[in-house]
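Morning F.,

Quick status update on the modeling queue. The single chain you submitted on Monday has been processed. Sequence for confirmation:
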Amino acid sequence: LFVENLFLTSPLHDIGKIGIPDAILLKPGLYNDEEFSIMKEHCRIGYETLNEALLRYPNAEFLRMSAEIARHHHERYDGTGYPDGLKGDEIPLSARIVAVADIYDALVNKRVYKEAYPHEKAKGIIIQSRGKHLDPLVVDAFLRCEKQFFEIFERF
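Structure tokens below.
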């Protein structure tokens, strides 16, 4: 059930970006401090949106997981992330898993602020983030199935 819920809910991790102005979302280049502060709000907005739905449907476990992912997918394993500065196992497992997938996706796809990176470069960045930004066990799991990540990327 955990994996099924993760599959169903992970696409909602950035739903809070609906509340972020396009001028910030589509900005090429780095954010200034004010813009970054606004962008970080997408975690709170997403959590609150999904949590409202959960209040209406309290038995919908997938909504509980989607809310925790939306809130915590930018936490860092070393505690330097946002919005709550959670560390290690304080971060829900679902959010730790989505963080690796989200970073891989951001790296291998072109963005307004950068070109797409090849798989090997993305993999290297993920390995360098092991134990700092990313949960070491989740990175190890990624490495065991990295070929599947690449195949899915190529297919879609």
